[in-house]
Amino acid sequence: MHFVTEFVLLGFPGQREMQTFFFFLILVVYLLTLLGNGAIVCAVKWDRQLHTPMYIFLGNFAFLEIWYISSTVPNMLVNILSDTKTISFTGCFLQFYFFFSLGTTECFFLSVMAYDRYLAICRPLHYPSIMTGKFCVILICVCWVSGFLCYPVPVVLISQLPFCGPNIIDHFVCDPGPLFALACIPAPSTELICYTFNSMIIFGPFLSILGSYTLVLRAVVRFPSRAGRTKAFSTCGSHLMVVFLFYGTLMVMYVSPTSGNPAGMQKIITLIYSAVTPLLNPFIYSLRNKDMKDALKKVLRLRINQN
């Protein structure tokens, strides 16, 4: 039996002019994402007023977003300009591993950030003693390590399937659905394991986030001060906006093994959570947060003065 040594990622097929348009559009999104998230990382690092758990989590989240979008977009840009549009077998599964590991880490970070807001709003007197610097570092390490320990099993299971041709993936990333479709033999047990695994990774943190914010909303509506309610809703609203944008698209793609989304729809949904969400996060968090805006202005002035 012949096994393929490379895959063809079709990406966004079309006329050369359309390909060029997609290239520059995605390049601009990528550069803006690096700039926006990089600014947040620098602001959190250099402004001592932001050395609090909420902003340390946000800085790590922005750093994560830089790597998350970098796991797919540079290869996507090369693919658009390429005539062959090929990716090696090993390269495909490495991209699969890093893309999904970073996405899983993002799920865990969103859950931890929700827990931090729950402690700050619902248990303000105990917050300093619970969310200590040491505990904050432990939570960050758990998110990173757990995210990268989750996906070796699905990657190994899918990579062991026989791929004897064709080798064309109608997508711009190496995704489980198209890979299952290319396998020479049906693998219902492996599919079930992978989709169950995806559902647990998505729903576990998501239910944790919903639980945290249900308690937060119950506490906020009881605030005697209208200004206090407005500030709490503003802080939590930014986080919830990111959560629903990210999780909404993930659930459409990966929760149901029989979702049967057409290839075009899969590409659009994947593009939203892999590129658009990392682009929007800095705007959502910084433009709705006075402390972050002040820190970004301070960092910008510092850089200008140094030059």
What does this structure look like?
GO terms for molecular function: G protein-coupled receptor activity; olfactory receptor activity. This is Olfactory receptor. Putative odorant or sperm cell receptor. Its main location: membrane. InterPro entries: GPCR_Rhodpsn, GPCR_Rhodpsn_7TM, Olfact_rcpt, Olfactory_GPCR1. There is one protein chain. By secondary structure, the protein is mainly α. It has one domain: Rhodopsin 7-helix transmembrane proteins (Rhopdopsin 7-helix transmembrane proteins). It contains twelve helices and three strands. The protein has a three-stranded mixed β-sheet with strand order 2-1-3. Helix 1 runs antiparallel to helix 3 and helix 4 runs parallel beside helix 9. The N and C termini lie far apart (62 Å).
Strands across the major sheet, in which order?
A: 2-1-3
What CATH architecture would you give? Answer: Up-down Bundle
Share in helix: over 70%
When the domains are counted, the total is 1
- For the terminal residues, how far apart are their CA atoms? 62 Å
CATH topology: Rhopdopsin 7-helix transmembrane proteins
Principal-axes geometry comes out as: globular
How would you sum up the major sheet? 3 strands, mixed
Classify the secondary structure makeup into a structural class: mainly alpha
What is the averaged pLDDT score?
84
Question: What is the CATH superfamily?
Answer: Rhodopsin 7-helix transmembrane proteins
At the first level of CATH, the class is Mainly Alpha
Work out the helix count.
Answer: 12
